[in-house]
């Protein structure tokens, strides 16, 4: 099993602008106040008229949010087929969903949703029985379904469990400890955990990560600096919890800890950015054993996968940008003693363990290939997968004879397979019950050329028989950052888009991890424009090849992808008809002033780094590049009031600036969800409403009427 939990800052030459005379908008936007606020960077003054919207505790901000939401809902209510979209999404969502089981003690635990439940319920059954029972129902955590389960961890013997909850999508967590026999809490919850894992030390207690509450600003927007790895001993008060690592001596680090499966070692990771980590080890079998340094810099990423006796198995990109697996003795754990076990290849590796074997999951042009190795590094076989897509799983305990993995693609609903480790045979264990016929659709991979000649992959999905006449409504999705790889996965909501003649295209932009650290680095700091150029080139390819046209193209992305959309729509506003920047990082001069934003500097750089970096960031920062009189595409910005990852002020300020300066008649709206965060843990009804509004807004502004309305 992958035992180590790594915490990082959680994630996340312009073309000419088309201008015209300023026209009165077709909508009456709220009269948003503009302040005289100026910040000086390296002798240059930068105006920030909407700084006041950063105050998420003010009544003035609350009234602005209320007015903007009222306008957005009024606009969406005029779309006559919107309810038809809601009805169709609800029909498609209403099927039983079950995840692969995991064994803890005498029980098999799995998640199940009977169809339209807001949150998945944890069930369990004995391994030799079909009789199942509810173990934990997150739908009871709050009346409106907005308090969600973020993680649950069991002790090795399965007698105890600790689970973390999130209220309204916030990154702040509350950890509850329960007896698995009685299902009742055994003591008071742990409060104010954040960016945390949970890792048990036997049945005595567990490690978790936490911050002190911000001293300035609200808990949802104030900067958090001193991350701490804590140890909680059962039966004691949280106020007596032991600080294991971090705190004021290590500011702006993101710290996680995990105990190896044999309970022998505590592994600690400390990161200052979204890439690179220090690594430490402590022998838990010896009282007051020192914490020993394994890696003393942030130049590489390293994770302890597994331990067997004194031997540690580590996945790392040290001298291997595409990752490799190494081994080292815990008695001499420093880098100088690491020995290659599974060498680096031309494809990016993600490794795991189960049943005393290693599993190497490679990305080959963003899709999966998986191989099984023994602990000596000998390749035993390639695991035959169902097709062109993404495989996940391949982890378990030492004693496991079988494991479960999932397989999915844009047209292959997620299916669970049971794999016999000794024979290498896979058999279907759980098939999705969604009403979708993959044989009616196609998903093809193409490679297009970006501005500087780089070849970039893109997967284009649509219904068979589609005519390439430039008239097909198309959503182009991208991310391009933080080493995140966009691998094929099925999304029930996309059925509605595809079955109505739509195209869904996903571009694997630089800044992501699809081709390793070099691909990632090529989209960071002073090379960030590569990401935007890659996305622009993807849009141009779709139009050139007659999949779609400007009038039928929407671009979409969230978080760092929201930055992507914001930058592209301000650089080339005539490229698309519709833009959906979601929970985006849109003020690049101040992103590092909120919550954990300082940790994103590895990808972005900051305005304080240098005059050159400041000018580069200002050159593409969406908020600072809205131009008076420019015709912008129909835009619906989306955010949420409890987003403490990318605070909603980014979206508020961008929306206000666009509404003030837009010179066209396209709607510029912002949709602000209540009791929701960056995306995780949203209840089902909120997810359905969100997609219905998105599809309705896109089709309406593309002058396209879906068949479901006829």
Automatic annotation (TrEMBL):
Pfam family, one: Peptidase_S9
Keywords: Hydrolase, Protease, Serine protease
Keyword Protease: yes
Domain (Peptidase S9A N-terminal): residue spans on this chain: 30-427
Coiled coil regions, renumbered to chain: none
Peptidase S9 prolyl oligopeptidase catalytic domain: residues covered: 489-699
Enzyme Commission no: 3.4.21.26
The reaction(s) this protein catalyses: Hydrolysis of Pro-|-Xaa >> Ala-|-Xaa in oligopeptides
Gene3D superfamilies xref list: alpha/beta hydrolase (3.40.50.1820), Prolyl oligopeptidase, N-terminal domain (2.130.10.120)
InterPro entries assigned: AB_hydrolase_fold, Pept_S9_AS, Pept_S9A_N, Peptidase_S9_cat, Peptidase_S9A, Prolyl_oligopep/macrocyclase
Protein's UniProt keywords contain Protease: yes
PANTHER family for the chain: PROLYL ENDOPEPTIDASE
Family to which the UniProt record says this protein belongs: Belongs to the peptidase S9A family.
Protein name per its UniProtKB record: prolyl oligopeptidase
């Amino acid at each position: 099993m992958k035992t180590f939990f790594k915490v990082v800052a959680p994630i996340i030459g312009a073309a000419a602008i088309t201008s015209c005379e300023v026209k009165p908008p077709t909508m009456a936007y709220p009269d948003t106040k503009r302040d005289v606020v100026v910040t000086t960077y390296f002798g240059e003054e930068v105006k920030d008229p909407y700084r006041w919207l950063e105050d998420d505790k003010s009544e003035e901000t609350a009234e602005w949010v209320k007015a903007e939401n009222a306008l957005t809902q009024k606009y969406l209510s005029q779309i006559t087929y919107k309810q038809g979209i809601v009805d169709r999404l609800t029909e498609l969502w209403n099927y039983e969903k079950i995840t692969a089981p995991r064994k803890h003690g005498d029980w098999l635990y799995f998640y199940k949703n009977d169809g339209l439940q807001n949150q998945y319920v944890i069930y369990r059954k004995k391994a030799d029985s079909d009789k199942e029972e509810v173990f934990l129902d997150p739908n009871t955590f709050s009346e409106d379904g907005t308090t969600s389960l973020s993680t649950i961890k069991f002790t090795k013997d399965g007698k105890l469990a600790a689970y973390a909850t999130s209220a309204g999508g916030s990154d702040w967590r509350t950890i509850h400890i329960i007896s698995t026999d009685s299902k009742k809490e055994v003591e008071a919850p742990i409060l104010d955990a954040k960016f945390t894992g949970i890792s048990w030390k036997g049945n005595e207690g567990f490690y978790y990560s936490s911050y002190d509450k911000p001293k300035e600003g609200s808990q949802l927007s104030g900067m958090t600096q001193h991350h701490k790895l804590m140890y909680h001993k059962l039966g004691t008060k949280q106020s007596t919890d032991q600080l294991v690592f971090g705190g004021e001596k290590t500011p702006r680090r993101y710290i996680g800890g995990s105990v190896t499966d044999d309970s022998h070692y505590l592994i600690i990771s400390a990161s200052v950015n979204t890439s690179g980590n220090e690594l430490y080890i402590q022998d838990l079998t010896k009282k007051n054993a020192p914490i020993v340094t394994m890696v003393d810099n942030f130049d590489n990423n390293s994770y302890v996968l597994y331990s067997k006796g004194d031997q540690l198995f580590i996945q790392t990109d040290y001298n291997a940008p595409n990752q490799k697996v190494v081994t080292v003795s815990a008695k001499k754990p420093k880098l100088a003693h690491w020995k290659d076990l599974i060498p680096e290849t031309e494809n990016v590796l993600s490794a795991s363990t189960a049943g005393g074997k290693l599993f190497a999951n490679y990305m080959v042009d963003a899709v999966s290939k998986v191989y099984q190795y023994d602990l000596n590094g000998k390749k035993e076989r390639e695991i035959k997968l169902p097709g062109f897509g993404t495989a996940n799983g391949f982890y378990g305990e030492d004693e496991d004879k079988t494991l479960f993995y999932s397989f999915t693609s844009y047209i292959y609903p997620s299916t669970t397979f049971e794999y016999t480790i000794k024979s290498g045979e896979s058999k279907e264990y759980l098939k999705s019950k969604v009403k979708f016929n993959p044989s009616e659709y196609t998903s093809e991979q193409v490679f297009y050329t970006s501005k500087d000649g780089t070849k970039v992959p893109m997967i284009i999905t649509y219904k068979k028989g589609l005519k390439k006449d430039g008239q097909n409504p198309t959503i182009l999705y991208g991310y391009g950052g933080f080493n995140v790889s966009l691998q094929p996965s099925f999304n029930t909501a996309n059925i509605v888009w595809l079955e109505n003649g739509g195209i869904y295209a996903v571009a694997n932009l630089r800044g992501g991890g699809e081709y390793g650290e070099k691909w990632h680095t090529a989209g960071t700091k002073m090379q960030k424009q590569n990401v935007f150029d890659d996305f622009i080139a993807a849009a141009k390819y779709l139009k050139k090849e007659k999949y779609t046209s400007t009038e039928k193209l929407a671009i979409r992305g969230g978080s760092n992808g929201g930055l992507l959309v914001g930058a592209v729509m301000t650089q080339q506003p005539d490229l698309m008809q519709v833009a959906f920047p979601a929970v985006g990082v849109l003020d690049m001069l101040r992103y590092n002033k909120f919550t954990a934003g300082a940790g994103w500097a590895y990808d972005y750089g900051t305005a304080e780094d240098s005059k050159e970096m400041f000018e580069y960031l200002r050159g593409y920062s969406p908020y600072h590049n809205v131009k008076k009189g420019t015709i912008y595409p129909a835009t619906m910005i989306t955010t949420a009031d409890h987003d403490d990852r990318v605070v909603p002020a980014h979206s508020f300020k961008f929306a206000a600036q666009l509404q003030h300066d837009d010179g066209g008649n396209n709607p510029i709206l912002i949709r602000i969800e209540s009791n929701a965060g960056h995306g995780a843990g949203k209840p089902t009804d909120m997810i359905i409403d969100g997609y219905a509004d998105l599809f309705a807004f896109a089709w309406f502004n593309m002058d396209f009427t879906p068949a479901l309305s006829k």
